[in-house]
Structure formats: structure tokens, C-alpha cells
Amino acid sequence: MTPMTAVTEVLAPLAQTRQWQEELYVHLHQHPELSSHETRTAAEIAQRLTSFGYDVTPIGGGVVGVLANGAGPTVLVRADIDGLPVTEQTGLPYASTDTAVDEQGNTVGVMHACGHDVHITTLLGAAELMAATRGPWSGTFIALFQPAEETAAGAQAMLDAGLTGAIPRPDVALAQHVLGHEAGRIGMTDGPVLSAADSIRITLYGAGSHGSMPQLGVDPIVLAAAVVQRLQGIVAREIAPGEPAVVTVGALNAGTKSNIIPDRATLLVNTRVYSDQVRSRVLAAIERIVRAECEASGAPEPPTFEYYDQFPLTRNDPGTTATVRAAMEAHFGDRVFTMDALSASEDFSRIPDAFGTPYTYWGLGGFPAAGQAAPNHSPFFAPVQQPTLTAGTEAVVVAALAYLSKDA
């Protein structure tokens, strides 16, 4: 039996699986949950995995299902499960109208604006198919459903709750993400595929005064403006050409009234890079520039730096990627393409890194060929159900069987 024969056998009942998948997808899309609050979603996943025959463990806000099927490799596939604080504007008949209270106490719309409902549905479909047809494969299949990817907290939460001791060590880890490519296409690349990212809350301290008496204060707004200007030179003058890097000042907050010089200003800064070395240089440059500008302005206190929403680099293992890509090309043919690295970020890699496991992460096309797809996190983000769900389910099965097929 060849790996492709195993794929054909495992995918044979897909038409039956597709029926409940489409219903589940609509349900998940209508009822998303914010990061670290995915209780209904996790319960739905656990119930379905149990019905498929998996050994199910809720852990760290997520769910893991383990299906042991004799001797052989262990393959882990991850899907993220959280929604976003976005009010949906897709006009779909099954659009989310759910709301939630965010961390600031505001009522916000909630939407699966990043396609995690696709990820849940396709991995559950693959999980059912792997459990239903066990003859052509041998080993252990792990379906891991991770919370709080959008806040970079979920993978670590599962690890902190004891994930590495709760499941067998995987020999390989896999993940996919629906993107704005044509539905049914599979994008792959080796090496860096998603950037590392850091968000920084920088507080600059001044000395408050009346707007008519600036000489009696230290204006943190003027200081902040100088900092913003200087930060723009990091990528242009401190990072080598050809080394991708982004430094963004997404917010500058200070003051309450036109004639009051405030005593502090806050900057929210975000960085994106593709290597640990560049990451270290960029972050060091930010701190150096901010401290120097504060000293030049005579700030009464040194600045503070609060790092949050920190995402690791996602770097696909070349050998794993080559194995999975060969299997994908055998099944999907010319629908497989080489995908450019993305400046978006993910925390998936923390899980295989904790096990010392190689991994690969691919893109799943989810939009019509004609027209411009709405970007991830947009209120208009709306993947087409088919062939997206079918292709995503097939991709998980094909990638897993590249290792688990008895003749792999």
C-alpha cells in the first residue's frame, strides 16, 4: 500500500463528513468567543472528539484528542479556536451578532475574522476520518485545539498547564491557516513563514505645567514626537538591506486639554522581524533611542517599557516541509504553490519548540479566484465554505499520512 492509497481510503467517507462540517462551521461562525474565553467552543470540540473515539484532555483552556493506532510515529496537528473583538460586516446569512465584554469593560462585537472556525472544522473533520479508517495507517494522531492565539497567550497557557507531560511527544507538528488565496489552493514555504512580533507600551515622563508656562515643565508630547521620528530610522539605518523588519507606532496618547502640558505620554509600538538576531537589534535600538531622547529632554524619570503580545518566529523545518509538500503535490497537483513569508505572527511554534519537534505550517486558500479578498481581521473577512472546508480537511489528512501511512 502506498501513502496515496492510504489517503484514498481515509478520505473515502469525506462526503458524509462534509455534511456535518458545513453545519458546524455555520454554528461556530455565528457564535465565536474571545481569546481565553472559548468555553462553549472547547466543550463542542471535546464532545465531538470523544464521539470519534479519542482520548480527550481539556488543558489550559484548550482541548487535546489523542488517537493511538499501534506502533509508528506520532503526528500532532494544531487548530486555533478564538475569535476577535470585531463587529462583522460580511452580510452573510450566518454572520455573527454575538457580543462580549472586553478587558476594558466595553461591549464589543465578536467575529471569527481570522478563519479559526475553518481551522476547527477542518481538523475535526480530519480527526473523524482518521478514526473511522485505521487500517491503512499506524501510529498516533493528536488533534490539538489551542485557545488565545490572537493574544499570543494560548500556546503558553497549554504548556504551563502541563501539555508536554499530558500527551505523547510528537515526532512532527503541523498547522494550517486560511488566507486570501484562491479556495482549494495550498501555499507552502520552508524557513521563516511568519514573523516574530513584539508589542511595547512605552511610558515617557514629563513635568506638567500650564500651556502658557512651558518653561516650568517638561513636555512629554514634544518628547514623544521626537521619539516617533527617531524610531523611523531603525529599519532604514540600523538594519541591513534585505533583512525584513517593521517598526510601527500604533498609538500616541497624552494630555486632556489644549492648555495643559501633561506629565506623561504613552506610545504603543509594534515590531515584526524574521530572525532572532534582527529582533534583538530592533528592540535594543528602540530602548536606546527612547532613553536617549528622554535624557535629551530632561525628563524627570526614566521611561518604562512593558512588553506584551509577544509572538515567536515561525520557521518551517526544511525536511518536514519537503515531506509534506511532496505529499500535498501528489494529492493536490498544481494547486500547491510556493507562498511568500507573511508579516503576520503566530504562537503555534511554542508547542513544537517545547517538545523539540520539527514542524511545518501552510496556507489554505479560502476565497474566490476573482476579486480582492478581504484581509484577515477585517470585518468583511468571509472565506467561502467550499472548496475551503474540503481542501483543508484533505490537507490535514494528506500531511498526517505522509508520516502515518504504513508505507510512508
From TrEMBL:
Ranges in a coiled coil: none
A molecular function (GO) term: hydrolase activity
Cofactor(s) required, per the database record: Mn(2+)
Protein name (Swiss-Prot/TrEMBL): Amidohydrolase
Record's keyword terms, sorted: Hydrolase, Manganese, Metal-binding
Residues annotated as binding Mn(2+): C114, H116, E150, H177, H377
Keyword check for ATP-binding: no
Manner of cofactor binding, per the entry note: The Mn(2+) ion enhances activity.
Any Pfam family hit: M20_dimer
Source organism per UniProt: Cellulomonas denverensis
Keyword Coiled coil annotated: no
Domain spans labelled Peptidase M20 dimerisation: 199-295
